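Weekly puzzle thread! Below is a chain. First person to post its structure in token form gets bragging rights.
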Amino acid sequence: MAGNRINYFRENEHKSTYCHIMKRGPWRAVHFDWHFGVDQPEKERKGLITERLEIRSMAEKLNFTIYPSAKNILQTRNLTKPDFLRELHRFKELCASEPCGCILMTISSHGEIVKTDDQGGSESFEIFEDNILTHQDSSAFSRDDSRVPVREIIEVFRDRKLKPIPKIFFIQACRAEENSTTDVDTGIRVGYRQENEFQYQDDPLNRSHSTPYLENSVMIYSTPFGYSAGFSYRIGSHVWKVLQMTLKEILAQVPVIGPVNLLHWLKETNNRLAKSEEYEIDDIEYKPLLSICHTLTRNIIFDTNNN
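Winning reply:
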């Protein structure tokens, strides 16, 4: 009877969690960030330093191995687009060529949504996708040539060897149009079918979001589509701070509630963030609320005692 019970729990674990896959190797993490603005030296941007430390703290508490190392930050900071993509591919190749049980990538940058080249032949709504901004040179932000679509970043990890491994992407960046006067997602037009003819309601809202797709992955944005993200020169990312606080509380309860469940952690973070309708930094409204989309088929469980 005891043997049957053990086999049942092992079989149930395989079906409901990624734990058996995550035991294949170390969990690997990488963080990329860029200066927010060019009018202040790095030493005056305490928020950027605080943010990096918060992300490192979360990764280490969950037993991730940080690329290239916890102390080497220059290799993944303030990169031009070619250097960023080169370093991104190096990290991916490490995960694909060496034992790896889970992938975590975090990005902190400016961001904006850009109308896609492929509009699917539709004249009734416009399709936008998320982009992050990189440095044109060692110190200045740039648009156009230095934009990197989030879709392109996710595609780097489309690899047969990485397909079964859970992949987690945290992105701290604005998700509004360049020089947008609104922080509200305008959505897409709502349609209805009448007899054999499809009709659109008289609704001017006609913007749609193109979401990248990757098996066994979860994408967590720091704000919903169409909103500005919250970052302060003094404290860094609002969302990273709340994520860290929530994780700290969950880990304090681990002997009682067991290992950390990723989706539970994200839900509890949103419970905190949703208590206020809006925030402002320098008179700019932003929405600190995690926007989550995933293709997970199981739960991601961080059993920090067994990794």
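Puzzle host: Confirmed. Bonus trivia for everyone else. The CA atoms of residues 116 and 128 lie 5 Å apart.
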